[in-house]
Amino acid sequence: MTWLDLPDGTGFGPDNLPYGVFSTRGTSPRTGVAIGDLVLDLHAVTGDDVHATGSLNGFMVRGPEAWQALRRDLTTWLTDAAHQARVQPHLVPRSEVTMHLPVLVADYVDFYSSRHHAENLGRMFRPDSEPLTPNWRHLPIGYHGRAGTVQVSGTPVVRPCGQRKAPTEEAPTFGPSQRLDIEAEVGFVVGAPSELGTPVPLGAFERHVFGVCLVNDWSARDLQAWEYVPLGPFLGKSFLTSVSPWVVPLAALEAARVQPPARDVPLLPYLDDTGTGPWGLDIAIEVRLGGQLVSCPPFAGMYWTPAQQLAHMTVNGAGLRTGDLFASGTVSGAEADQRGSLVELSWGGQEPLSLADGTSRTFLEDGDVVTLTATAPGTGGGRISLGEVTGRVEPAR
Amino acid sequence: MTWLDLPDGTGFGPDNLPYGVFSTRGTSPRTGVAIGDLVLDLHAVTGDDVHATGSLNGFMVRGPEAWQALRRDLTTWLTDAAHQARVQPHLVPRSEVTMHLPVLVADYVDFYSSRHHAENLGRMFRPDSEPLTPNWRHLPIGYHGRAGTVQVSGTPVVRPCGQRKAPTEEAPTFGPSQRLDIEAEVGFVVGAPSELGTPVPLGAFERHVFGVCLVNDWSARDLQAWEYVPLGPFLGKSFLTSVSPWVVPLAALEAARVQPPARDVPLLPYLDDTGTGPWGLDIAIEVRLGGQLVSCPPFAGMYWTPAQQLAHMTVNGAGLRTGDLFASGTVSGAEADQRGSLVELSWGGQEPLSLADGTSRTFLEDGDVVTLTATAPGTGGGRISLGEVTGRVEPAR
Predict the structure, then answer these.
(1) Could you tell me the domains of chain A?
(2) DSSP 8-state assignment for residue A224
(3) 3-state class of A213 per DSSP?
(4) Which ipTM was obtained for this model?
């Protein structure tokens, strides 16, 4: 299928072709496409200066026809041997590149769309109420996060300081978070903007969303618990959100589309996706702590799809900008080993995780490294990779 | 004090000198400074291309020394008659200019720092609990809003649609908001960025904040009430936030600085401003509905100052970017005619406001025009103006 000699099961075959922003020693950041263990220098191979701007935004704003055209070209260039002589000089080993934040993030929205995650948190934190709030089945709950602290994979996770108050304490105290956590999520990158005042219906999802990345929405549970009533999470989240460097085009996930779970209640028309193609996605996430696999959250089971999230987010007329990022919320499955956060995996810190090195964890310790990876069915019959997002916890400053 | 013939009580004398982005017919947006009824074309008079970029961001990122230097120059040019011949050709009547959004907004944060506002909302919506949540006196509660829908004064306010559910209803319904409201606020524009991982202490407020504007954070109370538990306001706010076009430099507010109200509880050291200069600000806001004055919210009484808001917002290591906007939250005073939102002025819709035209209002009707203006003591002995932010409600689409 390609004139390149790709490693077996690479996940970065010609049916993936994710976009990222890379540099090599002494060069400035530019756009590349991952193929096998290589990066194709898109600026060099196309001569189009939009790929030398240091982010994908300039290309994304051109819209879905431009995305499709370039993907067609890339497929031809990498599969038809007639292009080998011209293309090969612009391939760089991925081991030699530094990856950068791929997108200038405009607005960042985080949803809460895993029913298992919402139920787990409800059971832990509001044990006397129904686990789901009354609105949960009727709309994809979400909130705005801090776009300025979205960073690329590998950015150190400096343990945040802040206020927290245990129920037994009279007054809050200040210090490094004692309940530093992860949230394994999938993020969706908006490429084509929309006009203020005009909602984006379910059927227009593909015309606005450019691609998909992995997101670790680092969370300080103790800060969050004290601050979040009544206006929601703030400092417990805003210190860092890490994203994977390769943005997988939506077109590469065509074979991963699945029906979302059956819904409990009738949905209002703007959220009712029974008449449109399904936008559940069979993305299998793996969470590793210190190299050890600790969870396998299945994105396919998410109650709300990204198309529903986008329709909801804009139904009040809110406009989209190129570079908007919206994430799914923590992906948790029904099983204990499918939970996408430590607060769930350790059940609020009451059931520590045993690690292979003989230690155990409730929340993250300084020096811990957490890595999320994911794969999905590709159109070529195998599985494509969404790459990874990783971070190492550093002590509070 | 100036060679210009300024109107009496202009509010835009040489002790104000706010920055904005303007255009005249057939020209592109550039930076100007308001003086009396005129605008000084900063690009033309300085020849500095940073003032032709269509936003203040390029100038703001240069930092506080650059801000001070230009303000000194402007003061000299506009007060020393030796500069008249050179400067006068670059003055344009304000009646001939179109104003644009002055700042490319990076992140938008909205606080909740008026005790009277928080207590009023607590009494209305949680009548069986203490009006203030337990955290309120210990930290300035805030949340991230949608930066992409911050627009300049005059942008039409299209009535948003969305889900709402009355307590008596079984399921939510969809439609135009029936409780469209205003929030009279003061906004602070970050000029100089900060590094990820490094908090900005109280004493560094002036080194990062460039200036001040007025903010109307339009709110759909019915959408908000249904969606906001547990992650905070989202679509009830994200359809539009309007800002005044003139950003008043912090230096122009030196004479407006006042002590904030006495605090009820000891503050953690990072919020304790007893040792630093006070950053309460004596800004007097006026709210007009259809031209009629309906409220006079006093900013001087805000419990949390903008310096405390900034220190809190960054204490977890969150970095600042040039163009970050943080707003105070609704400004409400102790008296009934000092409330900064209609939900307070009409006490949840139970006590309609009588207007001079014989009509009454609980929430906004299509066609209503709301205008916020404000003044503060200037260093010249009079009062300086913060300009105005206005918007007209259009029917839902």
Answers:
(1) 19-99 (2.30.30.230), 108-394 (3.90.850.10)
(2) H
(3) strand
(4) 0.97
